[in-house]
Amino acid sequence: MPSTVVQTVHCPRRTPAGRRLVLAVAALLLAGCQVGTGPKFDPRAKSVPGGMNASGIFTNAVIGQLKPEWLQPSRDPYRLGPGDHIELELIGHTGTRSSTFVCPDGKIYYDLLPGIDVWGLSLDEARQLLTTQLAQYYVRPEVSLSLTRVVSKRVWVLGRLNRSGLFPLVGPMTLLEAIARAGGLFTSRFNGTTEELADLNHSFIIRHGEMLPVNFKKLLRQGDTSQNIYLEPDDFIYLPSSLSSEIFVLGAVTGPRPVGFMDDMTLTSAIGKALGPQPGAQLTHVAIVRGSLTEPKIAIVNYNAIMKGRAPDVRLQARDIVYVPFSPYSTIERYGKLITDTFVRTVAADEGGHSVQKGFSGVQITSPLSR
C-alpha cells in the first residue's frame, strides 16, 4: 500500500476571495484536471482539508431504463433443448410408451427412428416431425408427446434467499415469482426481519451479459410492480448479503478483486491492495461508484494527481466500486453502465461458480469492454 506523506504548509493570510479560489482549484483536481497545487491529505483525519469531503465530488447517474416489452410475457411457445425430458407414445400401439430426453446433439432417439433433431422446436413442431418420420414404418401414426422435466431452460436465483438455486423456466415467470420459488428473502431467526440480510441496493439481474436496470428496493420494499419484469432463459438473479463490507477494485489493475473494507480506507490504499494499476491504465479518470447499482453516484478522480501530491486522496465507504479504465469515458451514464456491467459479471461468475462447484476458487475479470 502506498505510503502517505503528510506535510504542514504555512501559507500567508488570504482574503475570502482567495480562499474561494483555492477551494475551486481543489475541486477541479478531484474532477480529473491537473491544475495548480492542492493540500496534502491526511487519511487519519475525519474530513478532507479545505472542506472537500467525498460526497462533494459525486455525480448522480441513471443506468438505463426498463423496456416496456420486459413487462409482458413472451408469446413464444416452449422450445426443446438438450437435457429436456419427454414422454412419447404411439397411440393405439401397445408397448410404444417411452420416457427419453433430448441428447446433447439435440436429437431424440425413439422406436425405429435413427435420431430426430428437435433442438429449438416447440412441442407441436416436434410432434409433427415425429409423426412424419414414423409414417415410414406405421400407417397413419398418431404421436403423443409431453414434456416431463425442463433442463435446458433455467434461471439462476442466488443470494440471501431460503432456497437459492437454479429453477426451470417452463412458462412465463416474473421476477417476483422466481424469488418466491426460491423461498423468499432469508429471514433472521432472532428478530424476524430481512432488512439487514439482503442488500437490495446491490441486488441485480443479468441477461446476455448485461445488467438490467431493475430497482430491487422499489420492487421488494415499495411494491413497485413496474420493476417486476418477466424472465428469460439463463437470467441470473443475485441478492447479496448486506453484512458484506467489501470494496471491489476492477478494470486495469494487476489483481482485480474484492478488498476487505477497513476504517479510513482511501482510494490509493484500495488500488494498492489490488497490486496497483496495469501499464497503459488511464489514471486521470479513475471512477468510484457508490450507492444503488441502478441509480449510482459516480466520482471521476485524477489518481495521478493524488499520487503526485497535487490532489487530496479520497476516503472510501464499504461496498464502493473502484474502477481503473484503459481509456477515458465519453458520458457519465455510459461509463457507469460499463462499470456496473463489469461488477455484476464478476460477482455472477464467482457466485455461479460457487453454486455449482465445491471449492471453486473464483475468477478475475479485467473487463475487455474497457479496452
Descriptive overview:
With 371 residues, the chain is of the alpha+beta class. It folds into three domains: 32-61 and 245-370, Outer membrane lipoprotein wza fold like (Roll), CATH 3.10.560.10; 85-149, wza like domain (wza like fold, 2-Layer Sandwich); 153-239, Outer membrane lipoprotein wza domain like (Outer membrane lipoprotein wza fold like), CATH 3.10.560. Helices cover 21% and strands 18% of the residues. The strands form four sheets. The protein has a six-stranded mixed beta sheet with strand order 1-15-14-16-12-13, with helices on both faces. A hairpin with a 5-residue loop joins β7 and β8 (165-168). It is elongated and about 90 Å long. The two termini are 26 Å apart. The model is unreliable at 1-55 and 365-371 (pLDDT under 50).
In summary, what is this structure?
The protein is an alpha+beta fold and about 375 residues long.
Physical arrangement of strands within the biggest beta sheet: 1-15-14-16-12-13
Number of strands: 16
Write down the secondary-structure element order: HEEEEEHEEEHEEHEEEHEEHEH
Instruction: Find the structural class using helix and strand composition.
Output: alpha+beta
Just name the CATH architecture of the largest domain. Answer: Roll
State the shape.
Answer: elongated
Write the layout of secondary structure elements.
Layout: H1 16-30, E1 59-60, E2 85-90, E3 98-101, E4 107-108, E5 116-117, H2 123-134, E6 143-149, E7 154-159, E8 165-168, H3 175-181, E9 204-207, E10 210-211, H4 216-221, E11 236-239, E12 246-251, E13 257-260, H5 267-273, E14 286-290, E15 297-301, H6 303-307, E16 321-324, H7 332-356
Parallel strand pairs: 7-11, 12-16
Antiparallel strand pairs: 1-15, 2-3, 2-6, 4-5, 7-8, 9-10, 9-11, 12-13, 14-15, 14-16
